[in-house]
Amino acid sequence: MTTTIAKGLEGVLFTESKLTFINGTEGILTHLGIPIQEWAENSTFEELSLALLLGRLPNAQELAEFDADLKANREIPGELVEVIKAFPRGVHPMQALRTAVSHLGLFDPQAEETSEAARTAISRRMIAQFATIIAAINRAQEGQEPVAPRLDLTHAGNFLYMLTGQEPTAEQARLFDIALVLHADHGMNASTFTAIATASTLSDQYSAIVSAIGALKGPLHGGANEAVMDMLDEIGTPDKAASYITDKLDRKEKVMGVGHRVYKYFDPRSRVLRDYAAHVAEKQGKSHYYQILETIEKTVVDRLGSKGIYPNVDFYSGTVYSDLGIQKAYFTPIFALARISGWCASVIEYERDNRLLRPDAEYTGATNQHYVQLQDR
């Protein structure tokens, strides 16, 4: 029997989905058939989250009820706040998030229920509470008291308020909202697949999401935007960017924020963020960051574009987050703040026709061996 191994499961289809479509060759990303550019321009994180959970565009009443539900569930148990405040200083933010979400499940009377109705109710609460948890972790790690959520702000605006203690401008809140929309779902990425794999055993929703957080924590998945900012700081000034990247490429070293497992053309999300990054950088007096990114993009595309290597969403997102006052260490938790919607929706969709995920591995070890007594080894 001839066995073909798909390294990294590349190109392997294991399920069907109506949520997200990606054409990496042409740089297309759609949710429910609607281009990501239209979601970013016209919608909100709240609407996209509900649309993913429903599998369709919600009507006005459904969206209003969902928005009210999110606001009503923003607070987290006081016991969890104390646990977060007791985390060791300097702990990895994703480690803290993973622990906090697992702890959150202890207070949910529905935590062990796995029906679609229960998973949906839990998902709505988690979408709301992720923002509160992440903001509380950030503040506690800085020795500050967590800020209680407000009910008069949008999901994005409330997060920025809880993070900084200052109400963001309408422009800042909208910019962050767009960033959340762009990251809300992205097909069968590693963390979404991990969430589904856990849920396929009929484990609970909290376990599935904690599994996804663990997968996202890896630098090959969630940490690239932080690495981009490190690269910009290392380059320093726009006039050094071209030679820095050329030297990297000559040494065949990876340029962070460039290239994607799926996209062989510009990541459409990066095209949306590029324009906002330019605007915010100019407004914040950090245009040198954007000028460095422009130079890196041109250098990389000139050298590697013919090989299908272009900037991805991480390339510009870090500068946007930085300009909003978010520390580099929290870029990956912000990713989780957005992706919680896609994780939950994908688990719910898969569970409607669930089959335990149980792949095989080709055995390449020894055969015809016999046990050797310990004293004879």
Automatic annotation (TrEMBL):
Keywords, alphabetical: Transferase, Tricarboxylic acid cycle
Q: In which pathway does it act?
A: Carbohydrate metabolism; tricarboxylic acid cycle
Answer whether the UniProt record assigns the keyword Transferase to this protein: yes
Which transformation does this protein catalyse, written as a reaction? Answer: oxaloacetate + acetyl-CoA + H2O = citrate + CoA + H(+)
> Can you tell me where the transmembrane regions are?
none
Q: Which family does it belong to?
A: Belongs to the citrate synthase family.
Q: What is this protein's name?
A: Citrate synthase
Native source organism of the sequence: Deinococcus sonorensis KR-87
- Write the lineage as a comma-separated list: Bacteria, Thermotogati, Deinococcota, Deinococci, Deinococcales
